[in-house]
């Protein structure tokens, strides 16, 4: 077996090629190495907020209200992961309070519930976050959760406003299409 010695020029070229290759690999994988993976971070993917209170999980929680001192309807989902039925109490501003019953290992969708979860006052104007104390009766665990207040500006929330849509906001049934039978006023020519 015969070995040939590399001259300085060849070893320099090999070192430069190795450096270029490692820089290229770093550029391709650097973003994933430096930044946290978004898929491993849990967050509320909607307008609402999420929280855990004992065995109860709150998802996409919002308060829909026309204003600061107006009633507010709480919407979202309340999951009960325990083996017994629970009652969840939501306490807002100025003593406003509502209760939600959730069966064992089940959930209640507040926006579909026949028993609306209404707070006598929302505690904040639309666009703000308000503190709501959430208590689960089975374990007496409570937690203060910041819940966003929205109004009926977005059509998907207009139906949840206590007392109907705010004045000036048209519902889909009130929006009329242009009529084909409208008569135009003829212009006179002189």
What value does the Rg take, in angstroms?
30 Å
Strand content: 25-35%
Integer average pLDDT: 79
| CATH architecture annotation of the domain at 49-158 | Sandwich
Number of strands: 9
CATH class annotation of the domain at 49-158: Mainly Beta
Percent helix: 10-25%
Q: Describe it for me?
A:
The structure is a single chain. The protein has 190 residues and is of the alpha+beta class. It has a domain at 49-158: Sandwich (Immunoglobulin-like). Helix content is 16%, strand content 32%. Strands 1, 2, 3, 4, 5, 6, 7, 8 and 9 form a 9-stranded mixed β-sheet that branches. A hairpin with a 2-residue loop joins strand 1 and strand 2. The radius of gyration is 30 Å and the shape is elongated. The model is unreliable at 167-190 (pLDDT under 50).
Which properties best describe this structure?
16% helix, single chain, alpha+beta, 190 residues, 9-stranded mixed sheet, disordered C terminus, Immunoglobulin-like, 32% strand
Topology:
Blueprint: H1 8-34, E1 49-53, E2 56-65, E3 72-80, E4 86-91, E5 97-102, E6 106-109, E7 117-119, E8 129-136, E9 141-150, H2 155-158
Summed up:
With 190 residues, the chain is α+β, with helices and mostly antiparallel strands.
């Amino acid at each position: 077996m015969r070995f040939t010695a590399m001259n300085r020029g060849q070893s320099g070229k090999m070192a430069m090629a190795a450096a270029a290759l490692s820089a290229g690999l770093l550029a391709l994988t650097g973003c994933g190495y430096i930044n946290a993976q978004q898929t491993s971070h849990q967050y509320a993917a909607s307008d609402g907020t999420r929280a855990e209170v004992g065995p109860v999980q709150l998802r996409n929680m919002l308060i829909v209200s026309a204003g600061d001192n107006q009633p507010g309807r709480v919407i979202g989902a309340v999951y009960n992961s325990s083996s017994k039925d629970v009652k969840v109490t939501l306490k807002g501003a100025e003593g406003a309070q509502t209760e939600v019953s959730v069966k064992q290992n089940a959930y209640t969708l507040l926006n579909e519930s026949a028993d609306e979860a209404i707070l006598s006052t929302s505690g904040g104007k639309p666009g703000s976050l308000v503190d709501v104390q959430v208590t689960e009766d089975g374990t007496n665990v409570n937690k203060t959760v910041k819940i966003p207040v929205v109004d009926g500006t977005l059509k998907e929330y207009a139906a949840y406003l206590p007392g109907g849509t705010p004045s000036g906001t048209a519902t889909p049934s009130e929006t009329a299409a242009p009529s084909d039978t409208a008569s135009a006023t003829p212009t006179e020519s002189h």
